[in-house]
# Entry
Amino acid sequence: MKQYLLTKTEIFGIPVKKINYTFDVEEPKPMKTPQYIIIHNTGNPNTIQKIITNHVKKKHYTSIGYHILIGKNGQIYYSRDISKVGAHTYKYNTKAIGIALFGNFNKTQPTEKQLASLNKLLDILTKELNIKEVLGHNQAIYKLLEQTNKLDIPKLNPLDIANDIKYYTFLKEIDEKVKKVNEDEVTNIFNRLKTCPGVNMYKHLKEIEENYNQS
# Structure
């Protein structure tokens, strides 16, 4: 049974559809000025209702954890107010806007319409909110691993490993180092280092880095 309604609204002049819940949800905490935008793919929860079930009913988030969703047809859905703390990326939720594209981009490609909508959002949000860095989910988590200073891992951009087999070999090598450190927080961070937003998204993230990230 569908547990939401859609209404038309805008984000800085961009037409979007707002997700309104038909059941009571808790108001997320306010977020201070965001520093990042973090890009995700939704993976298997591939409908709004399935994401609601996964995030709200199972994980007990206050609402969908991503601030914005982008459908295969390019439709933009506003799921959590960008002035509120998200629930999408470990250690970044109080300072990052989460945008998720519907799909599993280890298996399929993002559509041209999705990418067009994503770029439209990034054009506006980076300027209006003075965002200095746009990252894929795995890039953000890899930065956390680097910052622990507990692992002898290469200082690299995970997007450079845009091959599924090589990427899992890369994860296995880091896992061996994590086991030797044997520290809960390092293990906790590593367990979040997945391929999200998917290897088929990496070339687009490289373009996003060039266009939006301020050195």
